[in-house]
Amino acid sequence: MNSVIAFIIIFGALVFFHELGHFVFAKRAGILCREFAIGMGPKILAFKKNETQYTLRLLPIGGYVRMAGEDAEMLELKPGFRAGLILGENEKVKKVILNNKDRYPDLRVVEVADADLDKELYIKGYEEGEETLQTFTLSEKAVFIEDGVETQIAPWDRQFNSKKLYQRFLTIFAGPAMNFVLAFVVLAVLAMLAGVPNEEPILGDVIEGDPASEAGLQQGDVVTSIAGKEITTWTDLTDIISDSPGEELTVDVVRGGQPLSFEVTPRVEVYENGDEEIRQGIMGVYNDLIESPSIFQSIAYGAERTYEFTVLIFDLLGQLVTGQFSIDALAGPVGIYKNTEQVAAAGVYQLMQWGAVLSINLGIMNLLPLPALDGGRLLFFGVEALRGKPIDRQKEGMVHFVGFALLMLLMIVVTWNDIQRYFL
């Protein structure tokens, strides 16, 4: 149950902040946001505030902000339609009733002759019993009501595609960007709570039973040299140890002001990198922690770790593209859940760091220039900037549709691999 709760909280936070980035910049640009959804599929919970419906959906595989104009607007009034109109105090139409008109008193029922719901915002038609063509002006926030469901109209200046290129770019880019911001904040807070690793070569926790402990090294020892090579930073120490699996090394330290020497043989740890087998040395020590870092140290740590994880993920992506990793190395929702389960058992700090890594991962994946992803849409904006005009919306929509279908196929394959790996 703890693992399920941890997974829901982490996944929900990642999707929420990603979509929040889209949502905030869309609202700043004046775009009508019809829905802010976490999850996909059937609704579990829904409520409406102002112009936007907020929904929680059943399947934890993403989320979305439905902006007016991204897809073709479904509201239309064709000539010959009979519509009931409710006017406001300013004599502008505030409600258009499409059916079940007998439920609404004081309607003005018209037979539509012409209508413009985007730019001019009018309905022309003949009232019952009248032969004179009348023109009714629509309020910019007028709603259509069909089967009791209200849908607000979207004037052209409230639609996504009416906005300037930079506004559309920022609206789409803000989603992935928010994932990097979230990771940075989480890692900075983690530094404040758990401490900041000290870059000086001072030993922190020494793992019982590992080579360092067996050789007699202790917490607080200051390492000055290894195998005759001067050590000034923690990175110097880890580089030498990692490159010396199974080799006996002389480790010189200062303990309580006294110089001491120990013979340490790093144990060999083997892992696979594609078809290549990698051997590295492990001594079994952690670096010392600054337990009460300043806010500036915490911020610097958050930025540094965000950068390091970003570089690492890009490196792994490069290995995947070049064939050093197979598709079997990818993890879907099932794999992420199982990994979250293992990390949750290690403690809340490890869970926070795992959430930050997943947030960076989500941000990078969405920035890839692939159809149906945010990066694919940004790529189309780049082409539009070069051409001086947008690509035909139907052609772009078809590209995104095909891309989405392929991504769903990949998701099915990865999920099946996860199920086989963990349950079969």
Automatic annotation (TrEMBL):
Coiled coil: none annotated. The chain crosses the membrane at residues 169-193, 397-416. Residues 187-257 form the PDZ domain. It is found in: Membrane. Its cofactor is Zn(2+). One of its GO terms (cellular component) is membrane. It is an enzyme of class 3 (hydrolase). Belongs to the peptidase M50B family. This is Zinc metalloprotease. It comes from Jeotgalibacillus alimentarius.
